[in-house]
């Protein structure tokens, strides 16, 4: 017989609000029954009590709390506060859950294959090709009608997912008035426990062949080709960079990277990294700061939300939001576990079923392949709904055991920044200790990673948004910073009709006129180059998420680049002061500028792609402060 609380749910599935959660690494399933409250803001999520966790359903539109664009579709920020909880073995749950035919009809895509492929082409050309970002995730939905009770359907589909799926971080069903979720998501968004924070970016997708052979093994050559594929590898690096921006903002040590690993599921296998760091931030602040994963939005985050709003005609509901389970720990503090709401069916009160899936679009995406990827990502949930064939996984071979896979995965790290791959104890330069740096954020939180590296070198950074900085801050009597670092951001550096771009021109001009130390990065490097008389133009193909070896005045440095625009070589000077130029010949691009008290770089020394990033940044800082090559 099923335990009492589960029996209570099964006796009246629709008459109460409940959740059933199976979390990776747990032997037991958690069952929650309780009351539902809708909130306005994440800060209002109540504290859990001993034995009484809090489960929050966070929709995508909640990202408006950060000031980012989102269609307001009215999907509620909903909290389930359990009045009863219970755990039970998975086997007992499977025995008790219904296994019946659920009527699902009228299946259709919200966007046809042809229209989705056309959107992919537009995003590559009009967004990535115009410098608006490195990658963007655009979704489409599979829509259908459920003719049976929503709660019974969710319980039935939960059983199928528990039996048929593998590799999920959470497998769950949550039933509340008007909104029911059931899914098997592979991806942790963020967890907090005992002062440590974890994020788990997953990207790169291998679609399992329809026929794996009699023993469930995959074609080795196909999978090894996926592991070595440049697009798939760069796609993962880009989302790691974006999540490291978040880690640098919430973790005192900036965050460390381990991996890569494989996340093998029934229909797909992904590659992933694990990020961890220490933080004393409130779990609600952690949730707010990390809304939402770049694996389901893109980068840079703020502009990715604008691009999503531009190319997705309707709101996302709960897709790409999170479930967030808050629990009290043994010391009376709070723990957080929050998976991303992907590979999830969302049932609304009118019987509509929606399964959303998106593809990460990068500069060399193939529209047809990205369209196929959205279908593949939805397949696991659709098979649970009875809309796709169910897959036998009992004998599926572990892909990480295939010859060569472990070595090829490990080889990815050989090109990455050792700074982010190891514990980051401070190594200050004695001549930099205590020097204050104003870091101007131009709508890309690379500045958080830069700030962490500045602290590592002994400096004291102060990060401010561009619209909060005045000429007096950078060049007036109150300009008491030793250095102003002008940060990166999206967009065309010559578009003075953009208030942000115009402001960067004004703030850089004021600092340069005062002959005070300047360091400019990426977009701000391009602005500096244009002020110095150089032509700035678009690359034929963007350098978004690539590592390039560039010579910086006698030293070859491997640096990560995320740029569509470049400065072209030519005569460069500021008020008669000539600027030395470092030129990357293959792109005919000025990748760095310098003069006494001034330095700039096109690439991102702070990126995980910058193998030599810390050394390059250190040298640029000393150049800007006119300290010479020592230190």
Percentage of residues in DSSP E strands: 25-35%
Number of domains: 2
> What does the radius of gyration come to?
25 Å
Task: Give the overall form.
Answer: globular
CATH-defined topology of the largest domain: Anthranilate synthase
Terminal CA distance reads 72 Å
CATH superfamily of the largest domain: Anthranilate synthase
Describe it.
With 631 residues, the protein is α+β, with helices and mostly antiparallel strands. It has 2 domains: 4-210 and 232-393, Anthranilate synthase, CATH 3.60.120.10; 417-624, 3-Layer(aba) Sandwich (Rossmann fold), CATH 3.40.50. The protein is 28% helix and 32% strand. It is built from 16 helices and 29 strands. The chain has an 18-stranded antiparallel sheet that branches.
């Amino acid at each position: 017989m099923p335990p009492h609380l589960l029996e209570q749910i099964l006796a009246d599935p629709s008459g109460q609000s409940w959740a059933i959660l199976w979390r990776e690494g747990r032997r037991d399933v958690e069952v929650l029954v309780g009351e539902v409250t809708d909130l306005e803001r994440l800060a209002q999520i109540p504290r859990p009590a001993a034995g009484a966790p809090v489960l929050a359903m966070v929709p995508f539109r909640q990202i408006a709390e950060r000031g980012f664009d989102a269609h307001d579709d009215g999907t509620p920020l909903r909290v389930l506060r359990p009045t009863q909880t219970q755990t039970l073995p998975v086997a007992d749950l499977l025995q008790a859950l219904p296994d019946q035919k659920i009527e699902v009809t009228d299946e259709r895509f919200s966007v046809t294959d042809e229209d989705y492929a056309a959107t992919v082409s537009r995003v590559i050309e009009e967004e990535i090709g115009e410098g608006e970002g490195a990658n963007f995730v655009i979704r489409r939905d599979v829509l259908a009608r459920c003719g049976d009770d929503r709660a019974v359907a969710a319980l039935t589909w939960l059983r199928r997912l528990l039996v048929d799926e593998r590799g999920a971080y959470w497998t769950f069903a949550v039933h509340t008035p008007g909104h029911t979720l059931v899914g098997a998501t592979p991806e942790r968004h963020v967890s907090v426990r005992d002062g440590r924070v974890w994020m788990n970016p997953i990207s790169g997708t291998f679609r399992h062949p329809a026929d794996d052979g009699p023993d469930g093994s995959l074609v080795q050559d196909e999978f090894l080709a996926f592991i070595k594929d440049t697009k798939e590898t760069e796609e993962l690096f880009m989302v790691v960079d974006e999540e490291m921006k978040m880690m640098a903002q919430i973790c005192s040590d900036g965050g460390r990277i381990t991996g890569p690993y494989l996340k093998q599921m029934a229909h797909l296998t992904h590659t992933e990294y694990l990020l961890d760091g220490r933080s004393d931030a409130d779990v609600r602040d952690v949730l707010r700061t990390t809304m939402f994963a770049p694996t389901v939005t893109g980068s840079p985050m703020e502009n990715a939300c604008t691009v999503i709003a531009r190319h997705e005609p309707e709101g996302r509901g709960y897709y790409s939001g999170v479930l967030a389970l808050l629990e009290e720990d043994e010391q009376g503090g709070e723990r957080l576990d929050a998976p991303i709401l992907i590979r999830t069916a969302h049932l609304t009160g009118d019987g509509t079923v929606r399964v959303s899936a998106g593809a990460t679009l990068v500069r060399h995406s193939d529209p047809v392949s990205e369209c196929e990827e959205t279908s593949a990502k939805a397949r696991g949930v659709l098979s649970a709904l009875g809309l796709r064939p169910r897959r036998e996984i009992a004998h599926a071979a572990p892909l990480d055991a295939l010859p060569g896979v472990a070595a090829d995965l490990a080889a990815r790290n050989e090109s990455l920044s050792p700074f982010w791959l190891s514990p980051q104890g401070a190594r200050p330069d004695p001549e930099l200790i205590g020097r204050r740096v104003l870091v101007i954020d131009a709508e890309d939180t690379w500045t958080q990673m830069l700030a962490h590296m500045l602290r590592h070198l002994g400096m004291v950074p102060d990060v401010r948004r561009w619209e909060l900085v005045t000429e007096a801050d950078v060049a007036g009597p109150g300009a008491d910073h030793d250095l102003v670092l002008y940060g990166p951001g999206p967009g065309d550096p010559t578009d003075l009709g953009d208030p942000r771009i115009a402001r960067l021109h004004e703030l850089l001009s004021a600092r340069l006129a005062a002959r005070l130390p300047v360091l400019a990065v990426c977009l701000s490097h391009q602005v500096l180059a244009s002020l110095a008389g150089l032509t700035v133009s678009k690359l034929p193909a963007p350098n978004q998420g690539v590592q390039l070896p560039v010579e910086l005045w006698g030293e070859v440095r491997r640096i990560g680049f995320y740029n569509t625009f470049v400065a072209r070589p030519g005569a460069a000077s500021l008020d008669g002061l000539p600027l030395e130029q470092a030129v990357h010949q293959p792109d005919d691009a000025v990748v760095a500028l310098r003069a006494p008290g001034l330095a700039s770089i096109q690439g991102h020394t702070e990126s995980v792609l910058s193998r030599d990033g810390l050394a390059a940044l250190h040298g640029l800082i000393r150049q800007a402060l006119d300290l010479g090559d020592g230190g």
